[in-house]
C-alpha cells in the first residue's frame, strides 16, 4: 500500500475524525490534513502536495464543488471525492463534469476505502 497525503474537509469535526480514523486504520503511513472549510483547506495546502481529497459538499462559505475546482487547478492529478448526502442529479452532474467522484453519506469504512483504493 502506497502512502498518500489526504485532505479531509468537512465543517463537522465528528465527520473529519471518523474519516481520519478510517484512513489511519487502513494506512498508518498516510498523512491526513484536516480543514473545517474551503479557505482553511486552501491555506493548509499552499506548501503541501496532496494526492487525495475528500470534501464535504455543504460547508459555510465555499462549497465542496467550488473547492474541488480550485484544488484541481493546483493539483490536477489529485483524486477528489465529494462526500454528501445530497443525491440530487444536479449535484452528481456537477461532480461528474469536474471529474470528481461522488461518495454518498453516511460515512462508512467501505465507502471511504473504496474511494481511496478502488
Question: Can you describe what's shown?
Answer:
The protein has helices spanning 13-26, 38-44, 64-74, 89-98, 109-117, and strands at residues 5-9, 31-35, 52-56, 79-84, 101-104. Helix content is 43%, strand content 21%. The two termini are 12 Å apart. It has one domain (5-117): Rossmann fold, CATH 3.40.50.2300. Strand 3, helix 3 (64-74) and strand 4 form a beta-alpha-beta unit. The protein has a 5-stranded parallel β-sheet, sandwiched between helices. The protein is globular, with a radius of gyration of 13 Å. With 118 residues, it is α/β, with parallel strands linked by helices. Helix 2 (38-44) packs parallel to helix 3 (64-74). It is built from 5 helices and 5 strands. The longest helix has 14 residues, at 13-26. One of its GO terms (biological process) is phosphorelay signal transduction system. It holds the Pfam family Response_reg. The modification 4-aspartylphosphate is found at residue 56.
Give a summary of the structure in a few sentences.
This protein has 118 residues and is α/β, with parallel strands linked by helices. It is built from five helices and five strands, in the order βαβαβαβαβα. The chain has helices at residues 13-26, 38-44, 64-74, 89-98, 109-117; strands at 5-9, 31-35, 52-56, 79-84, 101-104.
Which features characterize this protein?
118 residues; alpha/beta; 43% helix; 5-stranded parallel sheet; 5 helices; Rossmann fold
Amino acid at each position: 500500500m502506497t502512502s498518500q497525503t489526504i485532505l479531509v474537509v468537512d465543517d463537522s469535526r465528528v465527520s473529519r475524525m471518523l474519516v481520519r480514523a478510517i484512513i489511519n486504520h487502513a494506512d498508518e503511513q498516510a498523512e491526513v490534513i484536516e480543514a473545517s472549510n474551503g479557505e482553511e483547506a486552501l491555506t493548509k495546502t499552499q506548501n503541501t502536495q496532496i494526492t487525495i481529497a475528500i470534501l464535504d459538499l455543504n460547508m459555510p462559505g465555499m462549497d465542496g464543488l467550488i473547492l474541488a475546482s480550485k484544488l484541481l487547478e493546483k493539483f490536477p492529478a489529485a483524486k477528489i471525492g465529494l462526500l454528501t448526502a445530497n443525491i440530487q442529479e444536479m449535484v452528481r452532474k456537477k461532480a461528474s463534469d469536474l471529474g470528481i467522484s461522488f461518495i454518498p453519506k453516511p460515512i462508512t469504512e467501505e465507502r471511504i476505502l473504496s474511494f481511496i483504493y478502488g
